[in-house]
Amino acid sequence: MSEPKWLDAYSGQTTAELIDLEEEYRTDSLVLAFEQALQQKVDRVGNDNLSDAERVVLAVEALEREVNSGGYSQFFFNSSNEFTPIVVHSLGAIGCSEVAELTQLAIDMLGINGPITVDAIDCVMENESDELEERLDVCDEQYYKVAGDLSGPLFEFIKANRDEITLGE
What we know:
This protein is mostly helical. The protein has a single domain, classed as A middle domain of Talin 1. It is 64% helix and 0% strand. The protein contains eight helices and no strands. It has helices at residues 15-19, 27-45, 52-77, 84-93, 97-109, 118-126, 130-146, 151-160. Helix 2 crosses helix 3 and helix 4 runs antiparallel to helix 5 (97-109).
C-alpha cells in the first residue's frame, strides 16, 4: 500500500466529499482543507453563522498552527487569539484533555482578571514581560511533549460531527 498523498488545497468539496478522501490523502492535509473551507465560509457569512463544531475545527487548528510555529506566545499575540475563549472547550471536544489542561494553564498565566477577550489578551501581550515569556515557554515545552499531532483526533471529531459542518453545499 502506498503512502497517502498530500491534498494541496480545498477546492469546493462538500463535507462528505472531503471525508471520503481519507484513504487517499493524509489526515493533516484533509484537516487543513477543512480549515481553509471554513475560513472561506467565515469570509462569506461571518463567524456568527458558524456552528459550534465548525468553531472547534478553527480553534484547534489555530492553536496547533501557532503553538507549533512560535509557541503559546504567538497564539496569544496573533489574531488567532480570537479563539482563546473557546480553545480549551474545543480541545476537550476532540478528546485532548491533557492539551486542554495545559492550554488552560497558559491562559491562566496571562493573569487576566475578568472575561478572556481579544482586547484583554492584546493588552497583556503588548506589555509582555520576560517573566511571562519564560512561563509560556515552559507550557510550550510541555505542549510539544503531550500534544503530538492533533489532526488525528480533530479529523475523528469532524467525521463524528459531519452533520454540523457544512462546506461547499
